[in-house]
Design brief:
alpha/beta, Rossmann fold, 2 domains, 18 strands, elongated
Amino acid sequence: MQRIGLIINLEKPQAVEVTRELLAWFENRRVTVKMPHHNARALGKEELGLDEGEVPGQVEVILVLGGDGTLLHAARAVAPNGTPLLGINMGQLGFLTEIEQPDVFAGMEKLMAGQYRIEQRMMLEATIRRGGDVADRFLALNDVVITKGGFSRMINLETYVGRDLIATYPADGLIVSSSTGSTAYSLSAGGPIVSPDVQVMILTPICPHTLNARPVVISPRQRVRVVLRSEFTEAMLTVDGQDGVKLQRDDEISVVRASYSTRLVRLKGGRNFYEVMREKLREGGRDGG
């Protein structure tokens, strides 16, 4: 492992401190390091900077210093290149990050020694069609959410799986999540926890105004299609809780399994999903990092 990329959440002071220590550690081992220009400038290491889109193609693995939120952003940016990501947690315990701050250099020793495996995570692709034309397209690792605006009333969401109508939900919104996203917003809305080893899509209504609306788990080979049937109502589509766009009446949103996947580095002897789940459910915490 001779070429390492870094993506750093500069809003976390401890991430900057750890990055400086990592740079010295890699320099001693003659490992080439690259990072986006804005990260390089903040660290006074302009010579290590590249355009953000160039970093994945120049390195063998990317270290993501932040929390699950930082890793979600990196996953969407890196997915087309297939570069593996290794999350270093600088916030609360997360489901996606692999290494806690005290274990950074022990983790690096394992990485350099090849003591790791690559875990594939299914991603989602959402397409917005307006008047028959494609208005926008997004990748997501966790979820695609259609939701009402801050001051609007409920929205009506005509929801299909394949050609079959599931329901027209009068609700605050609808979450379409991957198994990775089952422990995020979908869980808060009453959806099931699904092991990331299982590739599924989960449809979870948000505050539905009906007694018989329940989460539905479907095959990733299916296409979810949602038509916004509300008039004079604000609505939005958000991706992984980070990117968003306003919707209009009769917009059609389709969600399918993406052709890309997120590749996560899992170190030998690291935590597994169920250990993290037990800890998260015990603490009731959430990391937006």
